[in-house]
Amino acid sequence: MKVIDAAKKDIIKVKRSLSLRRLLEMFKDFHAAPLIPVVDNDDYLIGAVYPENLLDLLRPLSAKLFRNIPFTEIDEDIFDLDPVPAMGELLIVDDIMDDNIISINAHDSLEKAYKTLKLNKKERMPVVDDKGKIVGILGIFDIIWQMFKEKEIV
Amino acid sequence: MKVSDYLKAKFCLMDLKAVNKEDAVKELAKCLSSSGKLLKEDKFVNDVLERESLGSTGIGNNIGIPHARTDAVKGFVIAFGKSTEGIEFKALDGEKVNLVFLMGADPAELNLYLRILAELSKLLMNATFRKELIAAKSEADVITTIKRFEKG
């Protein structure tokens, strides 16, 4: 079973010139932790925005440094900060996106995709064709669904 | 983490000669070259201008905060420039810019860069702070003013 068979192909993607304000409005419409791929004018994948990239705007530097040490997570600090409205226009996707992205080829196997997600502690990742153009998004649940489907449970 | 931890008096220009955005970025980048953190000054300028082409950092109130994440910078740099005449900046409100903060960070310093951007935008929301920066007579005045307002 290939990645492309399980991936979601009807996806939201953005350009790197989109303002933070508009980006946040897009995130708001998702009901689960989303991933928004960033593409250039020809649909080549150049980055991605995950919720943690947005949290980084609120979280103090110290919290980021200690993020992986048990019992020092101080995420509640995000409520002590006071970002100003101007940030909504000052920052654009290009400023905050992750350009070191984990992605998977559409023709790779679902087993490889599952391992890639687990290894990188991601819930979902962009799917690209051989040229690097975005063709979809694959998440853990898409893999689970495909496995149940193969067993004719759904 | 504060703006004053990174902005030094020698990276403040009290009288920018530039009248447009491109020249202002070049002038401030040149001033930063003595920091030893600009690996490629020309590339830094190009990357900042490319970022500007995606969306102006002239956020209104006569302020511009041109910035870029780029491998032309090692670590993090910030410079300040003041222009009495005003600089054509394609700002969101269409007004000229009198206060410019130029920032650059290597891609690994994303978090620091965003935090300083946030701190700086917060300071600059304060009209009294802007007024005092414009009135500052010397580079040392600029730093003192920033430190005073950082304390709240």
Write the SSE topology:
The complex is a heterodimer of chains A (154) and B (152).
Chain A: H1 3-6, H2 20-28, E1 36-39, E2 45-49, H3 51-55, H4 61-65, H5 87-90, H6 93-96, E3 104-105, H7 110-119, E4 124-128, E5 134-139, H8 140-150
Parallel strand pairs in A: 3-4
Antiparallel strand pairs in A: 1-2, 4-5
Chain B: E1 12-13, H1 21-32, H2 41-54, E2 58-60, E3 63-64, E4 67-69, E5 76-87, E6 97-105, H3 110-124, H4 127-135, H5 139-150
Short description:
The complex is a heterodimer of chains A (154) and B (152). Chain A has helices at 3-6, 20-28, 51-55, 61-65, 87-90, 93-96, 110-119, 140-150; strands spanning 36-39, 45-49, 104-105, 124-128, 134-139.
Count every helix of chain A, treating DSSP H or I runs of 4 or more residues as helices. Answer: 8
Based on DSSP secondary structure assignment, what is the total number of beta strands of chain A?
A: 5
State the secondary-structure class of chain A: alpha+beta
Fill in the CATH topology of chain A.
Answer: CBS-domain
What does this structure look like?
The complex is a heterodimer of chains A (154) and B (152). With 154 residues, chain A is an alpha+beta fold. In chain A, 34% of the residues lie in helices and 14% in strands. Chain A is built from eight helices and five strands; from the N terminus they run ααββααααβαββα. In chain A, the strands form two sheets. A three-stranded mixed sheet of chain A has the order 3-4-5. In chain A, a hairpin with a 5-residue loop joins β4 (124-128) and β5. The mean pLDDT of chain B is 94. Chain B is 41% helix and 20% strand. In chain B, strands 1, 2, 3, 4, 5 and 6 form a six-stranded mixed sheet that branches. With 152 residues, chain B is α/β, with parallel strands linked by helices. Chain B contains five helices and six strands. The A-B interface holds A 16-17, 19, 56-57, 60-61, 64, 81-87, 89-92, 94-96, 99-100 and B 1, 51, 54-55, 57, 59-60, 65, 67, 69, 92, 107, 110-112, 114-115, 117-118, 121-122, 124-125.
